[in-house]
Amino acid sequence: MAAASLSDVPARITDPEQLKELLGIPFTPEQTACITAPPAPQVIVAGAGSGKTTVMAARVVWLVGTGQVAPEQVLGLTFTNKAAGELAERVRKALVKAGITDPDVIDPDNPPGEPVISTYHAFAGRLLTDHGLRIGLEPTARLLADATRYQLAARVLREAPGPYPALTRSFPDLVGDLLTLDSELAEHLVRPEELRAYDAELLSSLEGAKLSNAELRKIPETAAARRELADLVVRYRAAKRERDLLDFGDQIALSATLARTRAEVGAILRDEFRVVLLDEYQDTSVAQRVLLAGLFGGGTGHPVTAVGDPCQAIYGWRGASVANLDDFPEHFAHADGRLATRQALSENRRSGGRLLDLANGLAEPLRALHAGVEALRPAPGAEHDGQVRCALLRTHAEEIDWIADSLAHLVRTGKEPGEIAVLCRTATDFAEIQGALVARDVPVEVVGLSGLLHLPEVADLVAVCEVLQDPGANASLVRLLTGPRWRIGPRDLALLGRRARLLVSHARVGADDDPDRRLAAAVEGVDPSEVISLADALDTFLEAPLEDPAEADDGLPFSADARVRFARLAAELRDLRRSLADPLMDVLHRVLAVTGLEVELSASPHALAARRRETLSNFLDVAASFAASDGEATLLAFLGFLRTAAQYEKGLDNALPGGENTVKVLTAHKSKGLEWDVVAVPGLVTGTFPSTQGREKWTAQGKVLPHELRGDADTLPDIEAWDSRGMKAFHEAMKEHQHTEELRLGYVTFTRPAPCSSAPATGGARPRSARGVRRTSCTPCTSTARPGTARSRRGRRSPRRTRRTRPCTRRPPTTPGHFPSTTRRWPAAGRPPRPYSPTWSESPRTRTPTPRRPRPSTTRRRTTTRTGRHRRTPKAPTKIPSTRPTAISPTTRPPTGRTTSRRKASSKTTATTTPTGSPGRRTGRRCPTKQRLRRLVPTRRARRPSRPRKHAPSPPGTATWTPSPESCCAPARASPTCPCRRR
C-alpha cells in the first residue's frame, strides 16, 4: 500500500486549546507537551493513573488533525487483545469526536483508513507472514497452542535416545523444564549451542575450585543438567520445523532475526507507518526490544513514542526487562546522534493524595534506580482525598472475617459490589475469602481460582464429550448423572454400578458372592480387570420396555424416575455418537444443542448466566483455535489436548474478570491496568506480601538461563567468585533484587483505587474540606496485617467529633475497624454493623431515657454490657423541655445494648440491670475507656476479681496499650474502676 503524501492530509486542528475543546478533556501541561510534541522519538514515563491511554489517543488525533500523518499510517502496539481493543476504540472515538473521521461510511467498498492497533505478538506474526521467506520461513507456518507445546515436548522427550544421567526430575517436570529453557533462549536470542559452550566452560572452571558447601557442589550438577536440556531443546525445535509449527517465543525471536539481518524490511515498515506508539514498554522482553529497534530505531530518528513506568515493571519473572525503558533514548536515537526525548506524566487523576503518599513512599527506592521517574502528585483539590485504613489482627481467621465484615458493611450501605476488589499476593486465600463473603450474602467472583476446564459449564460439556468418546469414562458419566439436569440419587446410582459389574462378570444377581461361580469364571479365562462401564449399563435401559422392567432389571429395584431418566440419557448419547466423525466444532455445537446447555444459559436472566455464556464462548474459541492448528482435528485429539492442559496449564487460564456486579477477588499481578473504588489488600506480613520467595536461581535450576547470557545481564546480580563468600554475596543480591520486585508490585497494588462519584464507601465518613463542608471521597485502600510479622504505625489521630467526655486518643490497634480519619467504626470481625448514635454527653439535645424496672437476675454471676463504639439511642426516649443535657440518675441506667455474662451460668444469657446498692455492680456514669477495654475481653473468660491486679505481660508480637489519666476519663473521672484511677 503506497503511503499518502503529507500534503494530501488536510489540517483541521491548529491549536492545543482547540484539541482540548474538541475532545472535552482538560489536559495538564505535562499531557499537552507529550501530545503536541513534534514527530520525533520520545519516551514518556507515565506514572500510575496519569492518563497514558488518553494521551496516546490524543496524540494520534493531534498528528492526524494537524495533517502530519494519515490515520492508516499510525501503528499502535500493546500486550493483550483487550488493551489493544480499548486503545483502538479510544482512538476511533477521539477521531470521530474531533470531526476528523466520519462515523458513517459513505462508500463501504472503500472505507477510510484507520490506525493499526494490535498486540506485539500479532504484529510479529504479520511480519513473518509478509517477509518470512526472506529468512527461509514458509508463510503457512501454524501457531502452537500452549497445551500442544506440552504434547510435542512430551513426545520429543519420550523419543530422545539418551541417556541423560543428569536429568533426574520426574517426566512432567522435565517437560516443563524443556519448554521453560526454550522460551528463555528465545526471549534473549541465545542459541542452544552458545548455552552448551557456556556450561562446558563453567564445568571446566569448577574442576579445580574448592566447593565447600552444598550450594557450590550443586552448580556442576545444574550445569550438566542444563547441557542435556539444551540438547533436548535442539530436538524440540527440529520437531517444530518438521511440522511447520511456531510458538509465541519463535514468533518474536524469528521476527527479531528478520529485523536485525534484513534492513530492507525496516525501510518498508517505516514508510508504511509514519508514527509508532508502544504501550507498556517496560514489560517488553529483550527480543521484542531488538525487533522494534531493528525496524524503527538504530539512529533512523523515526517518530516512535514509547509509554511506560519502570515502577510498574512487575513481569520480570516471565522475561520482561525494565532496562528497555531506561535505555530507550539510546536505542531510538535521532538521525544526527541525539538521544530521544524523555518526558514524564506525574499528575495522578485516579487516586487521592493520601493514597499517593503511600505509593510514593513505596516507590522512593525505585525512583533512585530509574531516570526520569517523578513522584506522583494528586490532581488539584484532591490532596486530602482517599483513605488508607490499616488493621492489625492477631490471626489469619480474624483477618479474613474482618475483611468480609468490612466489605459486607460497604455493600449494605450502598456501595456497588462491582466497585470493590480484594487483591492478594497469591491465590492461596482465594477460597477462604470467597467463602467468607458468600456467607455474608456478598456477591463475589474469584478471578483465576481455577482454570477454564474447572468451571461448571465447561466441565459439563467436556464430561459429555468424554462419555461419547470413551464408554469407560465413569467419572464423567457420574458427574452428568448427579448434576442438576438428571439428579440421580445415590441409591439408583449404586444400583447402576451393580448392574455394570454384573455385565462384566456375565452372571446374574448373587454371582459376586458365590465362590464356585468366581472359580468357574477364573477357569473360563474371564479377565477380572475388564473395565466396568456405566455407559454400557445405561444402554440396557433402551433394550427393554419401561412398562415391564422386571426382567431387564435382574431384580434390582430402580426407581421409576431413574429408569425414565436413564433411558433418556442413553438415547441422547446414542444419538450424539452418530456424529463423532463430523468436524470438531460441529460435534461441540451439536452437544450444546442436544443437552440444552447453551439455551438454558441464554434464557436465564441471572447475571451469572451471562458470565457462563462468556465462559462457554471462550472454550469454543479454544476449540476453534485447536481445530485451525490441526486440519484434521478430531474429538479424541481435542480431549487429549484438554487433558494436557489440565495437567500442565492448570486447566487453561481463565483469569479475566467478568462484567457482572460482584466483588472481584484476584491477585495483584492480574490487577494491573484495572481500577476500583474500594481495594482491600490482605496478608501484609513478612513472607506473604512482601514475599520472600525469590526467583529460581540459575545456579540451582537447569531450566534457568545464566545471567551472563541474558540481554539484561547488567540489571541482574552476578557471582564474583566460586566460593562460599561469593555465593553468600550472590544470594544477598538476589534477595535485594526480589525486594525491589515486591516494591513494584506493592506500588501497582496501592494505585488501583479510583475516586468515587457517589456516596462514600465508609457509610458517611468523609474528610472535611477547608470550609467545613464534607467532600465526596472513597475508601480506596484497606490493608490488613497480623502482629509479630510486620510493623504498623501506632500513632493515630483522634476522631474529629468533639466530645465532652473524651475517650483515649491512642486506641488499641487490635480493635478491628477503627481508623484515624473517620467518625465511625467499621464492624468488628463477627459482629453486624450498628447504626451510628451519639454518646450520652456529646450533644446538647441528648434525651434522657425512660427508667426501666430492673428485671430479676437468674444468676448471681456478674454481667457486663457489650456495646459498640457509641451507646445506642434508647427505643422509647422521653422528651424534656430543656435543651441542656440532663444528667442520668445514679439509680437508673439507660439500656446500652445486649448484655452477656462473663461466665456462662445457664444455657441462656440473661440481660439484667442491677438496682442501687447491688454488691456486684457499680452505678453512675460509665467510663468510656472501661467500656472499650471490656469489649476487648472475650465473654467466655472467668469472672473478674473484685480487687485490681497487675496485668500480665503481653505475649511477643502483641501491640500493648495503656491509657493515661490525661486522655482517659479526664476531666470527669466519673468511674472509679477506670485503669487510670487505679494507677
Describe the structure.
The protein is of the alpha/beta class and 983 residues long. Among the domains are: 19-101 and 112-134 and 252-345, Rossmann fold (3-Layer(aba) Sandwich); 142-243, no CATH class; 368-448 and 656-798, 3-Layer(aba) Sandwich (Rossmann fold), CATH 3.40.50.300. It is built from 31 helices and 20 strands. The radius of gyration is 35 Å and the shape is globular. 38% of the residues are buried. It comes from Streptomyces avermitilis. Keywords: ATP-binding, Helicase, Hydrolase, Isomerase, Nucleotide-binding. Residues 25-352 form the UvrD-like helicase ATP-binding domain. Residues 791-809, 850-874, 922-952 have a biased composition (Basic residues).
What is the topology?
Blueprint: H1 16-23, H2 29-35, E1 42-46, H3 52-65, E2 74-78, H4 81-97, E3 116-119, H5 120-131, E4 142-143, H6 146-159, H7 171-187, H8 192-206, H9 214-242, E5 245-246, H10 248-261, H11 263-272, E6 275-278, H12 286-296, E7 304-308, H13 323-326, H14 328-331, E8 341-345, E9 347-348, H15 353-369, E10 377-378, E11 388-392, H16 396-412, E12 420-424, H17 430-439, E13 444-446, H18 456-469, H19 474-481, H20 490-505, H21 515-524, H22 534-539, H23 550-553, H24 560-577, H25 584-595, H26 597-603, H27 607-629, H28 635-648, E14 663-667, E15 678-681, H29 724-749, E16 781-785, E17 848-849, E18 863-865, E19 877-878, E20 899-901, H30 928-936, H31 979-982
Parallel strand pairs: 1-7, 1-8, 2-3, 2-6, 4-5, 6-7, 9-10, 11-16, 12-14, 12-15, 13-14, 15-16
Antiparallel strand pairs: 17-19, 18-20
Helix pairs in contact: 2-3, 3-4, 5-10, 6-7, 6-9, 6-28, 7-9, 7-10, 8-9, 10-12, 15-29, 16-17, 18-19, 18-24
